[in-house]
Design goal:
With 734 residues, this protein is of the alpha+beta class. The protein has 26 helices and 18 strands. It has a 6-stranded mixed β-sheet. A 5-stranded mixed β-sheet has the order 2-4-5-7-6. Strands 16-8-9-18-17 form a 5-stranded mixed β-sheet.
């Protein structure tokens, strides 16, 4: 029997992790079921063997794509575990419940609702034996070393999952119809239910099962998530935490495993929500108003007759106009109808493979290029056909709209990345003995999905530094007249076609003298160097640079900020640092809204065209002869706003000759990278354009000074300049 228990435990773990398209796990479940049938067929009752056969058949249909109800598999495995427990206790097996599961596995829809309600009846046999003795729980039993190890793993993983649920519920309340958020809450409950089932933790299993059913109704649209439902789930989470903490205490003391916590009140509240949703379902507004005693059936009938004559009016509107019902009562009924599925809203969502989405964006970019080339075609330009111009104008509008829609489909709120910092700050503050409050603004700011994925790691490093290096201890803050609680603020907003993310703390700020001292120690700068504040602060991005006086578990090893810089530059962005000694620091990240399109200035150098990203441009100007100078050892310089800035010629970095040999005969574009400024000498500024970025391929990916290419409206290829590479190339050629 011990071997059978292990088989069932393995089966339960596989069922908990099962996903609709996880063919390997399905195969494992089928193999485990075959072993159960082969090894224990003689001791199992016929109805139990029928159950295993039915589950095998259902798994085979899942493998073929003919079925996909993962929850049904979990219920069936839970039923098998309950049968095993009844056998070990010498109790009667409730064959009626097993037959209901078999009917569901064989495709009988009529058995579904009853079986889902009765599946836990098999777990109640202990509770029906009589009142518990004081200080003992019906689930208490002698624990083996293996049991204790499993329970400890269960406790740690479940408590972590419940903490995640609490954070995610904040998102769910603000986005109640987001299926991804509901799924992210559903999965931890499903795991807790499955694991607690084979560990015989009945109360945890029952409550997690009820919460899972509630979220399942939300996923299917039968229940709309609102404040009441959120409070109910949070209360369930609190109760589950108490139960799991009781299990943890029970492992250590040998007392009752789940304690004497009563779960009936919270279970009954969930059942009330279930019952209410089934009563209301998709009922019409009039029927709800009649059941609530607001109006009579006769009044509703009259309102329906009048609505036929005036279809633009709704039933509730007619009832209010006739004085049959108050507006407040109608609004309340509408909310009730919407909450329980009657009016889920008109917006429908569909899941799309991200590869298909990226292909759509790429093809839209190609369409934009083709449309631009068509518009500049000589045959079109020289034509006098007004109808052709109208058609071209219409095509331009359609292409522009399509491009905006395609790009918006890749945009997601930055909220998820921000929310992940909540737990991080809390844990860091607790481990360092500090009190830190995290505030966020602009969480709904949208950014390219690919940018969001890449942004997480650099943000983690900066938030870690803000808490570990920036924020002082409560005693230190009190000594300098600051509140004992430090503040870290995350902000996101759009500005000039870019997204700006700010990470600000009110800590001690950056120590310029300490940074300079450390930089000189590492020979990063010369002893007599004169640097601006911005250049000093940017030294912390050097690999291996750290001013920490001691290494902690969080930071101080000199890794992190160089990772931040590389990650942000990979996203074609930049980081700026503002710091006020004793008052705190602000890290400002500038990023493009999307990685597919870049806004840039088209410049001409000789016969070639280049794109200078607007994010890097300070200004463009035609310098006077008096603004030009050359200094031995520093090369050519242009005076821009009373500051001498190095001049970079394309012939030195790309071996491309410029038509204008002297700067005062051409134009210069002043750019900035990583605090360093320099001027690019060009023949002509053609104009500002949004261009679709094209990869240059693996053979040219290592070319310095070039970030990619694009196709201009005349069909020519223009290279997109990489300011970091040009800065490096110009320094090497100086």
């Amino acid at each position: 029997m011990e071997q059978m228990r292990k088989h069932l435990e393995a089966l339960a773990l596989e069922a908990v992790d099962l996903e609709p398209e996880d063919i390997p796990t399905m195969g494992k479940i089928v193999n485990t079921l075959s072993e159960l049938q082969f090894e224990y067929g003689e001791i199992l009752k016929p109805v139990c063997k029928d159950m295993i056969v039915a589950l095998q058949g259902y798994m085979e249909r899942m493998i073929l794509g003919e079925a996909q109800d993962v929850k049904l598999v979990s219920d069936a495995v839970g039923c098998l575990q309950a049968v095993y427990r009844s056998m070990t206790r010498g109790e009667e097996i409730r064959e009626e419940d097993i037959k209901l599961i078999i009917l569901r596995l064989n495709g009988s829809e009529g058995a579904t609702s009853r079986a889902s309600c009765d599946i836990l009846k098999l777990e109640k046999s202990d509770e029906e034996e009589g009142p518990e003795e004081e200080g003992h729980n019906t689930t208490q039993r002698e624990l083996t070393k293996e049991d204790i190890e499993l329970l400890r793993d269960f406790v740690s993983e479940s408590l972590e999952s419940l903490s995640t649920i609490e954070v995610t519920l904040i998102d769910l309340e603000q986005n109640p119809e987001d299926s991804e958020i509901i799924n992210s809450i559903f999965r931890p409950f499903h795991t807790i239910k499955g694991v607690s089932g084979f560990l015989s933790l009945q109360k945890i299993n029952k409550l997690a099962h009820c919460c899972e059913n509630l979220l399942d109704k939300a996923r299917s649209g039968e229940i709309r998530i609102d404040e009441t439902i959120t409070d109910l789930i949070l209360e369930s989470v609190d109760t589950l935490k108490q139960l799991i903490e009781a299990v943890q205490k029970g492992i250590e003391t040998g007392v009752s495993l789940e304690g004497n916590i009563d779960i009936d009140p919270i279970v009954k509240q969930i059942e009330v929500v279930h019952a209410r949703s089934e009563q209301i379902g998709n009922k019409p507004l009039g029927e709800i108003l009649v059941e609530d005693g607001v109006v009579s059936k006769k009044e509703v009938s009259k309102a329906l007759e009048e609505q036929k004559r005036a279809p633009e009016k709704k039933v509730g509107e007619v009832l209010v106009e006739k004085g049959a019902a108050k507006a407040q009562a109608v609004a309340s009924a509408l909310r009730e109808q919407k909450k329980f599925g009657g009016g889920r809203g008109t917006e429908l969502h569909v899941k799309v493979d991200t590869k298909k989405l990226d292909t759509l964006v790429d093809m839209t970019g190609e369409l934009v290029i083709a449309q631009s080339m068509l518009r500049q075609n000589e045959a079109i330009v020289s034509s006098t056909d007004q109808k052709l111009f109208q058609t071209m104008s219409q095509l331009n509008q359609i292409t522009s709209t399509l491009q905006k829609v395609a790009m918006s489909m890749r945009m997601v709120p930055i909220r998820s990345t921000f929310q992940k910092m909540v737990r991080l700050v809390r844990d860091l503050a607790r481990s360092s003995g500090k009190q830190v409050q995290l505030t966020m603004s602009g969480e709904d700011t949208e950014i390219d999905r690919n940018v969001v994925d890449e942004l997480y790691e650099p943000m983690v490093h900066m938030v870690r530094n803000a808490v570990d290096h920036g924020i002082e201890t409560p005693e230190e803050r009190k000594a300098v007249g600051k509140p004992h609680e430090g503040k870290v603020e995350l902000r996101a907003y759009h500005q000039s076609g870019n997204i700006i993310i700010e990470i600000e703390d009110d800590g001690r700020g950056l120590d310029k003298e300490r940074i300079l001292e450390k930089a000189k120690e590492k020979n990063l700068i010369e002893a007599e160097s004169s640097l601006t504040d911005s250049e000093i602060y940017n030294l912390i991005f050097q690999p291996g640079f750290s001013t920490a006086k001691k290494v902690t578990e969080v930071s101080g090893r000199g890794v992190g900020m160089d990772v931040v810089k590389r990650s942000i530059e990979k996203l074609r962005g930049r980081v700026e640092i503002e710091s006020r000694p004793g008052r705190g620091s602000t890290f400002v990240i500038h990023l493009p809204l999307t990685l597919a399109i870049i806004e840039g200035m088209v410049v001409r150098v000789g016969e070639e065209r280049y794109i200078v990203p607007t994010l890097s441009i300070l200004e463009s100007l035609k310098p006077d002869r008096s603004k030009y100078t050359s200094v031995h050892g520093r090369g050519e310089l242009i005076k821009v706003r009373d500051k001498l800035i190095p001049l970079v010629r394309f012939e030195k970095v790309f071996d491309i000759s410029c038509d204008c040999k002297d700067p005062w005969d051409g134009l210069v574009v002043a750019v900035e990278h990583d605090g360093a400024q320099f001027c690019l000498l060009v023949d002509e500024v053609v104009g500002k354009e949004e261009v679709v970025i094209k990869s240059l391929g693996s053979s040219l990916i290592q070319v310095k000074g070039v970030a990619g290419g694009t196709i201009l409206g005349d069909g020519r290829v223009a290279l997109i300049l990489d300011m970091a590479g040009i800065c490096e190339l110009s320094s090497a050629s100086a």
